[in-house]
Amino acid sequence: MKNLILILSTILLLGVFQEANAQEGGYATVRVFDCNKSVGLGSGYISSKIFIVYEDGKTEELPLLGYSDKNELENLKTVNATINRLKSKGYFLIAQYTTGDQGNLISDYTFLKQQ
Q1: Residue 9 scores a pLDDT above 60
Q2: Virtual torsion, Cα 18, 115, 25, 94, nearest 10 deg
Q3: Its pTM surpasses 0.85
């Protein structure tokens, strides 16, 4: 019985420490506008691009080519390179969501910073 209590206590403490470490890292959010024409967003328009917001509030904006069959592969390469760059900085992809239709897609990626 004592061994069972010790094992369960150890598992519980490891879980608490892992959760605390994960929360210290923070999140980065990436939004990809992959559009064949400007997308209405509030009162303005957004052309094809990638926005990144880091856990410290810093932002980054990367251009994409306007959506077309000809540019689709190049844009995918740019998105892939961005995801790989975030991974090399210690981020781990935890969620992805896409809305819209072909030629008018908005994708969100959420990354957790590993410590």
Answers
A1: no
A2: -70
A3: no
